[in-house]
Design brief:
Blueprint lengths: L2 H25 L8 H17 L1 H13 L1
Length: about 70
Amino acid sequence: MSTIEQYYKNCKTFREELAEIEHHMKRHKIYTSFDFGKLHANLAEYEVWARANPGAIDAALKSTYSA
């Protein structure tokens, strides 16, 4: 699996885990001032940017993992 494929897999896992946390909090009526809606919107914007700039992500991750 390439670095960029691993990155997208990790992003998908993070979004799924985030949704589980949000659902758990709603189900158990746990109050938080944290704005999940804003986070989801930011993640969606970031995903658009990431898809348009895979070379930048790949280069950054390769330098991080090879260090």
